[in-house]
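Morning run. Coffee first, then this:
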Amino acid sequence: MLQRVRRDLRKARDAGYKVGIVDAFGKSSTSGIVSISTRIDNLGLPLEAMEAWDVKPTEYFVLLLHFEKSYDPLERVVTSQAATHPEIKFCVGKCNKFKPLPTQAFYAFTGLHYPPGEEDPEPEANTSSHPNTKFEKLFISSSLDQFMCDSFVPLLKIRENEGLDWDNANEILRVKLGLSGDNQQRPDSHVASTRDYDLGPDHVKDVADERSLPLVAMQVATRYFVKCTEYCLRCHRRLDKELEALRPYVCTDPLSVAS
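And here it is:
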């Protein structure tokens, strides 16, 4: 399985993302934390959006993936009988470097700088002496973290089984969970966005025998980050609006408003 981990991470790198080995994951272990990132200036965001979202062109948009147990490849995840995959956690943020320090990555998931009972592996490597490696939350981190942790695997299964895109898979998921509080017709997911972003080929549609779970996760996180103003902060359904906002907001669905 370690070889599969390395192949999947290599696919993310070959797709143009930076892969950061944070701990033993991918080196000697199939569990642990890995970072996938891209520079903000690769995302094609306009200056006013970067200012409103408090990001700089030279910073990195970072997705941290924490595999608490042994890594499961994509084909195993989508065929699992479990509704979710709680052993995978996600955390999005920004960093001046393509990966944060191990202590920063561990803190992002646990609130601790290193596992209980262990000594700090890098006592000198703190954010005061290494400010460029600090992992910071984005304005949308809480919303996107929860969405990725709760919905990424179910959405991936719906896409795989029914051949839908992410938007329509989300509609199906919300119906299955009884979370559709309105009957409002949502905008067609194939309607062009007010801004066009090159997010690369959809890896879910790749016909290769092996598809990379980290790459798909990064594509989803990046997609919802750069297009965040087109989606509700709560239900992540596409907003029906004529004017473009600089920051995302909550839609009028009663369940979204109440949450």
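The chain is about 35% helix and 10% strand. Good start to the day.
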